[in-house]
Amino acid sequence: MDQLNNYLYISAILFSLGTFAVMTRRNGIAVLMGVELILNAANINFVAFSRFGGMNMDGHIFSLFVIVLAAAEAAVALAIVINIYNNLHTINVDDAALLKE
Amino acid sequence: MPVAEIVFWLVAAFTIISASFVVLNNQLLYSAIALLFSLFGVAGLYIFLWADFIAGIQLIVYIGGINVLIIFGIMLTNKISSVRLSQTNVQQGVGAVIALWLMILISLVISKTPWLQIESSEPSETVSVIGTLLLSKYLLPFEAISLLLLGALIGAALLSREAT
Q: How many beta-carbon pairs under 8 angstroms link A with B?
């Protein structure tokens, strides 16, 4: 609890779980959930380094910005996913490859 | 072992187990609920890191906003009568190997680096410091991110509107 390494290990595990979801999920919304896990892992790192770097508040500001960006990203990504569903009747990201043809 | 230490490890285990449930579960709605618990655990970790304001924002924005948005998206794009398909693609083996390799690599880097740790005492208040920083040192990024939020709002409304 008073060791920087513990927080870094937790965030590394969250990050690799998130990358696994992004790489293997077929559903667009599940991919989005993986991205949220990755952003949370980065945020834990920011706040942990800020706590163990002499309680420097800059890390807190940065993680606030990351949370705001995640909110904007989720809103736009869900709008795109719903649009794909209206046009293709699926949200399988492997099927949304019209530009390839 | 003091009580705080036990609670810390419980919160950490809770976060990681719910996160693996998000990744490995086949039913999308259960994944979304597990994501909610995982975000809750991350908020607990923020409290252990003396970041009470960030923990509150995490609860409000992630759990109250983003997670509800994700559940809305699942409900809007799920056909109830549709056949239950596998949620993962054929690259599951390769993906697992890459993710595991990434985790081992990052853990090696973490354990080999001599991290600098400065002893500090718990701050009596964080909100006023964050507010002062946002309106002095980080004023320009603050304004830029408000413009970005406005753009994302308009863009999302424009994208999800009925095409007429």
A: 221
Q: What is the mean pLDDT of each run of 10 residues along chain B (164 residues)?
A: 90 94 87 93 93 92 91 82 62 88 94 86 86 92 94 88 69
CATH number of B1-78, picked from 3.30.1330.10, 2.40.400.10, 1.10.340.30, 1.20.120.1200 = 1.20.120.1200
Report yes or no: A49 and B50 within 8 Å, Cβ to Cβ.
Answer: no
Residue-level length of chain A: 101
Name the residue in chain A with its Cα closest to that of B48.
A1
For A60, name the nearest residue in chain B, comparing CA atoms only.
Answer: B54
Contacts for B90 with CB less than 8 Å, ≥ 6 apart: none
Residues B19, B23, B28, B31, Cα dihedral to 10°: -10
Output b/e per residue, A86-99; b: 16+ Cβ within 10 A.
eeeebbbbeebeee
List, in order of start, the domains of chain A with CATH numbers. Answer: 4-90 (1.10.287.3510)
Q: Which of B20, B70, B99 sits opposite A32 (nearest CB)?
A: B70
Chain A, residues 14-53, CB within 8 A of chain B, namely 14-21, 23-27, 29-30, 32-34, 36-37, 40, 43-44, 47-48, 50-53
Could you tell me if A72 lies within 8 Å of chain B, comparing CB atoms? yes
- The interface predicted TM-score (ipTM) is 0.90
